TrEMBL record:
Keyword Protease: yes
InterPro entries reported in the protein's UniProt record: CarboxyPept-like_regulatory (IPR008969), CARBOXYPEPT_ZN_1 (IPR057246), CARBOXYPEPT_ZN_2 (IPR057247), Peptidase_M14 (IPR000834), Peptidase_M14_domain (IPR050753)
Residues of the signal peptide: 1-22
Key words, A-Z: Carboxypeptidase, Glycoprotein, Hydrolase, Metal-binding, Protease, Signal, Zinc
Domain of life: Eukaryota
UniProt-listed CDD domains: M14_CPD_I, Peptidase_M14NE-CP-C_like
Family under the similarity heading: Belongs to the peptidase M14 family.
Protein name per Swiss-Prot or TrEMBL: Peptidase M14 domain-containing protein
A biological-process GO annotation: protein processing
Length: 448
């Protein structure tokens, strides 16, 4: 009894001491930060200013220099150039960079900002996320774990030509002068091939798909098609809501038609997880327009064709959600510190969602070699995930019981396997497929 009282007192005391000690330190750090923000040096600093936007050139310099200073976990590369020749620079973050290649079954996540050049909060937010993750690596165990188990790719600005035209404080401009579009006045989020456009339905090869699209669209399409991304987000502004596939529908209805993707449950969960953690998004009165629970089906909100998120889902394994982050598209810089606070947790949690569901390897039963382009089919969901060249697959799922099967050309389909997905850990389920040699032998015998 006495002991516990003493302990409690000690605890209270030490807490007070700690608080007293840490208070001036906190103030001092804030002060130093403020001073530093006035003379931010993109060549040398790991942080980005909390309350001002970076110019395009500053952003490129900063991304390259922070990657150079942290080569074990960060790397930059270009996926192409804008119409006016600006770099579409990606920064990759992962502990696997030091190990030379992505670990087997490590999920790839991408985050794309500023597809509309005047929607800029997401662009800044991605820069701060990069800065945060790099500075908290080996400091915050959750960050360390996230970087050690996930391969994260940031494209902070997909439309740098639009961005340089856009003006701070301009909340609404939709036209070419406002910076929404690219240099050729193309809306990049209407420029992707679309399953609901009759003329696009016939496109098969990568070349056919890419033909006569904006250079920014082509660069991102190739990036999507050439890499096994599992999860993706596209960051926008002008509303505060998480909007999920499909954006398009086969109807000509402009609003109010719920165009559900086969993975509607997964998309709703990903979106709700974001909105629930965002103090403004989850409210239904933000920006004066109500979204129940802060999420919406894209087409239900308004039908759009040629969007990036539908392209991801229809043409790759990547599940993408559109995150609308601010009522004002080019919000005043003074809003940025609060935007970071609203979005930090939801965004980090979103990245970690790439570990939901089930993953595994599909291999040849006889040789144990990986089978590429094998299918993984979940009963009741009409979207088959395909394997990578290493035989890997990732299947995002919400908690529940599922029946799952794998099949590949030249192999006997696997048996149906029961699996239970929980909220706690990722399941691993491997498949060994038997080649269909019997059939070939028989055919040959008959022919002979
Ligand atoms: C990071 O991942 C590697 C490879 O999976 C593992 O061996 C190592 O223990 C992990 N390190 C930490 C700090 O979790
Ligand atoms: C997925 O695979 C199943 C099982 O073979 C098949 O019936 C279905 O048509 C496939 N779905 C798609 C969208 O390709
Ligand atoms: Zn937008």
């Amino acid at each position: 009894m006495i002991n516990s009282v003493i302990w409690t007192r000690l605890l209270v005391l030490s807490t007070l001491v700690l608080a007293a000690l840490s208070l001036p330190t906190v103030l001092k750090t804030e002060e130093t930060k403020k001073n530093e923000q006035n003379d931010f040096n993109p060549e040398l600093d790991d942080f980005v200013p909390a309350d001002r936007y970076l110019t395009h050139d500053e952003m490129i310099t900063w991304l390259q220099s922070i990657a150079r200073r942290h080569p074990k976990i960060a790397k930059t590369f270009s996926i192409g150039k804008s119409e006016q020749g600006r770099e579409l620079l990606v920064l990759e973050l992962s502990h696997s960079i030091e190990r030379g290649e992505r670990d087997l079954l490590m999920p790839m996540v991408k985050l794309v900002g500023n597809i509309h050049g005047n929607e800029v909060v997401g662009r800044q937010l991605l820069l701060r996320t990069i800065s945060h993750l790099i500075q908290k690596d080996n400091v915050d165990p959750r960050v360390t774990r996230l970087l050690n188990t996930t391969d994260i790719f940031f494209l902070p600005s997909m439309n740098p030509d639009g961005f340089v035209k856009a003006r701070e404080g301009d909340c609404w401009s939709g036209g070419p002068e406002g910076g929404r579009l690219n240099a050729n006045n193309i809306d990049l989020n209407r420029d992707f091939p679309d399953q609901f456009k009759p003329e696009d339905k016939l496109l098969r090869s990568q070349n056919e798909l890419l033909q006569s699209r904006a250079s920014e669209t082509q660069a991102v399409m190739k990036w999507i098609l050439d890499n096994p991304f599992v999860l993706s987000a596209s960051l926008h502004g002008g509303a505060v809501v998480a909007s999920y596939p499909y954006d398009g529908s086969g109807t000509s209805q402009q609003q109010g038609f719920y165009s559900a993707a086969p993975d509607d449950k997964v998309f709703r969960k990903l979106s709700q997880d974001y909105a629930d953690r965002h103090p403004l998004m989850k409210r239904s009165d933000t920006c004066g327009v109500g979204f129940k629970d802060g999420i919406t089906n894209g087409a239900y909100w308004y039908d759009l064709k040629g969007g990036m998120q539908d392209f991801n889902y229809v043409h790759s394994n990547a599940f993408e959600v559109t995150l609308e982050l601010s009522c004002c598209k080019y919000a005043p810089a003074a809003d940025l510190p609060a935007e970071w606070e609203y979005n930090r947790k939801p965004l980090l949690n979103y990245i970690a969602s790439s570990h939901r569901g089930v993953r595994g390897l599909v291999v040849d039963k006889t040789t144990k070699r990986p089978i590429r382009s094998a299918y993984v089919h979940v009963f009741g969901i009409d979207k088959n995930i395909t394997t990578t060249e290493k035989g890997e697959y990732w299947r995002l799922l919400t908690p529940g019981r599922y029946i799952i099967q794998s099949f590949a050309e030249g192999f006997v389909p696997s048996s149906s396997r029961n699996i239970e997905i929980t909220d706690i850990y990722t399941e691993q389920l491997n498949f060994e497929l038997e080649p269909t040699v019997h059939q070939k032998t028989i055919t040959r015998l008959i022919c002979d």
